[in-house]
Amino acid sequence: MKTLWASDNDFTGQIPDYIGTWNLTDLRFQGNSFQGPLPATLSNLIQLTSLRIGDIVNGSSSSLAFISNMTSLNTLVLRNCRISDTLLSVNFSKFTSLNLLDLSFNNITGQVPQTLLNLNSLGFLFLGNNSLSGSLPSSVGSMLKNLDFSYNQLTGSVPSWARNSQLNLVANNFGADISSNSALPTGLDCLQRNTPCFLGSPKSSSFAVDCGSDRPISGSDNSLYEPDAVTLGAASYYVTGEPTWGASNVGRFMDASNGSSIIYSSHQFLNTLDTELFRNARMSPSSLRYYGIGLENGNYTVTLQFAEFAFPDAQSWKSRGRRVFDIYVQGERKEQNFDIRKVAGGKSYTAVRKQYTVPVTKNFLEIHLFWAGKGTCCIPDQGYYGPAISALSATPKLYSIVGRPNVLSYGELRSATDNFSPNNLLGQGES
């Protein structure tokens, strides 16, 4: 046996030690409920060209030492695996065939070694959501064009090679280098850890986005949904020109022919008055975030809207497809193993709306859709998986009789009083 795929199952406990005695070239364990640490016997699998393990749910932490002799690897994914180590524990200069390295969502500390970024064959590097510190290396290999360092503790100035790369540096501690007159890339200053854009000086009270659309759409809720048609690659972010909102994407659709992140359907959608909002949706192979920037502080109603596209209701092999992901708002998990089609009663082309009341305390809102390895990977096509969203909005939760008052802007207070009637207050209690 050369290949072992056992993803998206209900396996628990530890990965068995005896797997290290098998003669494998491709091993995939993603989307299960395994416990750490990863077995040290995996170090015997030196013939592996592809290793993908993800989503270790609990147990003790693992180190990177077991991969030291797997120098034939082309693809190495150890995502969300409870790894606590430094990148210096592995001599990556020996990994001359490595094209994709994903060590995101772990607890990797220390600096990013220059030897790793110099690998001639490396094209995709995902190191986001760790605890990396220090500054970035001064150069990269000629093939390395997609780099994710988001959600770390990196500092210093953005290196010059960033201009020729897809580079995600969201949620770090970068600043402008005044001595060299080097400014941060457009919008990045609004998405650093201290969120300096409009901190303490809010500029907006709400926002709405039609995900994947190339034109604004007026919704039946009286919101104007702004277009969101920017191409977000494997490691990229975007901030609107105002700025009032932004988005960040991380991940590569594995084994996909085109890997498009925006999907479209001309189908009529059920359970909604706003079928145009659902024509387009944005997908992500790993982690998709939307941000509200410069919002007034207070409690907000966040509305997320979804509809599944490509899994037909009629019984066929395509109807077996499943899209499963987690939803976080302001860092709190609101939904685990969320399945759009399942929530819609097993129907595609049917709108699903999720609403949450969340606090905004630093003029900043984060919505995070996270793929935890669940669902199908290749229905209807290779690389069709991960979170997908059609539209979203965030609006202040107005004064209620039962609940506590929100802090309103003058314009919102004027609007609320101008439209006052007893009926308007009914049913507006805290949810």
TrEMBL record:
Q: Which InterPro entries match?
A: Leu-rich_rpt, LRR_dom_sf, LRR_Rcpt-Like_S/T_Kinase, Malectin_dom
Q: Does the keyword Glycoprotein apply?
A: yes
Q: Which domain of life is it from?
A: Eukaryota
Keywords, ordered alphabetically: ATP-binding, Glycoprotein, Nucleotide-binding, Phosphoprotein, Signal, Transferase
Any one annotated GO CC term: plasma membrane
Query: EC annotation?
Result: 2.7.11.1
Q: What class of enzyme is it?
A: transferase
Domain Malectin residues, every copy? 206-392
GO terms, molecular function: ATP binding; protein serine/threonine kinase activity
Q: Which Pfam families match?
A: LRR_1 (PF00560), Malectin (PF11721)
What is this protein called in UniProt? Answer: non-specific serine/threonine protein kinase
Q: Which organism is it from?
A: Triticum turgidum subsp. durum (Durum wheat)
